[in-house]
Each structure stands twice: as structure tokens, then as C-alpha cells.
User: Fold this.
Amino acid sequence: MSSSLSSSAPPGAPWQPLKDHGSGYLSVYLNEPLARWPIREVTRPSDNKSDPNIETGTYGLFSTCEPSMRRIIVSTGAATIVFMTSRPGAGRLVAGYYHVGWFAEGSRGQEKGDFALAADRLKFIDPVPPSEFAEGVSEVMQVPFRTQKPIGAAIVDSIMATFDAVPDRTSDYLAELQRIEQFSKSRSGYAYPSWGREQGFTWSDAGDYLRQPGDPVDAPNSSPTGEWRCSECDHVISNRALLKRCPVCGKLATLRPEGA
Ligand SMILES: [Zn+2]
Assistant:
């Protein structure tokens, strides 16, 4: 049984349906060290993480993470993303999956491979070591890879069978996300201080992050200094990864690497 996304009825335009061709990806995200459940690293200093954004069932909508994986998912119909994360003392564990049902052009433009993905099904579980998956699957999971690895349809089917057999803990992950966001806000005034963002993410924010006609698309997505200047308000901000919105003025796609 997988979670249906109550807060996200199938998105309308500009979202388009993704045809599932059976294959998928293993995708690694950074674990939140303060959390009881292995949620993404919300409190990562100068690099607060927004993906996987399980509260909206999206990936790459709010962040600039893994553009090549997102582009290939859209071009090949590799619709299943199996998420892994590392917990202290436990190594990499399998935490959840998305079945991607829709995609839309992100704010950096499809020329940059920037597609936002939205799940029509997802499920997060008590994290499982790769060794507990079926023969042939556990080996694939344990071959060293950095952040992403394509997997074939037979591997996807076997992993889904394992997911089907265990309880759904998505609501525990969601509650933990809220708890950590609240903790961060009580400390800094912001749920996501490096984003200048007071609250968490909801579907009502989604439209703000999709590409608008006339948006610039040519910004590099790395800054050697970790600093970015906003072409709109001229503030210089610090964040390891490119942010889609300026944390000061809130404009989309205005940040450029500073002082290379
Ligand atoms: Zn600005």
C-alpha cells in the first residue's frame, strides 16, 4: 500500500503526464542528523535541503539538485526513484520511493535540464539495509556510486515487491519534517535560514518555482566562493548550491556566482 498524496491532486498545466517505461533510479540524499526518521538534511548549514520534498511529493521543483537525473527521467520514462540515505553507524539505507507521474519545466529552463518532477505515488518506510533486498538487487545497491544510479525494470519490480510488504511510515517522516522545521525556526526565525524561508513547502508555492515566460535561464549552477549576487536587488547571499529564488527579494532566477 502506498500513500496517496492528499495535498496534491494531479497537477494541471503546465504539468504533463510522464509515461512509465519501467526503469528508474537509485538516488541518495543527505540525512538530517537531528531527526528520528531519516528525512532530508533540513538544517544543513548554508545549504538547507528541500529535496526529496515528500510533503509535496516533488523533486527538483524547489531545489537545483540532480539535474541530469531529472532530465533523463523525463526523456526515458525512468519513473521510479528509490531513495537512499546514510545514517551514522548504519551506512546507506533504503528509505522510500517516488513513482513519478508528472513533470514540468523548472525555473532554470529545459535547456538546462531543469525539470520539476511530481509523484503520483510515494512511500517511505522503516529504513532497510541493501543486504535485505533480493539477490541481484542488494548487489546493485551496494556497488559504490555517488548520488544517483540508473536501474532497470526488473530491479525496480523487485524493489517495489519489498516496499509492498512493509508498513507505510510516510506520515512519521512528514511529522518529523515539521518538527525539525519548527526547531530551526525557533532557533533562527526561519524554517530554512539559508533560503530566507520562514515556513515549509506546500503545493501553493509550486507555481512560484516553475518557469515563467521571459525568465533568464543562463545562470551557472555553481559558485566557487559559495556566494551569489542577485541581479534584481544586488544583495550578495551565501549558499553552497544555487537557489532558484533570491532569499532577500524573492525574485526567481536572478542569482549569479559572485567573485569567482
Ligand atoms: Zn534579490
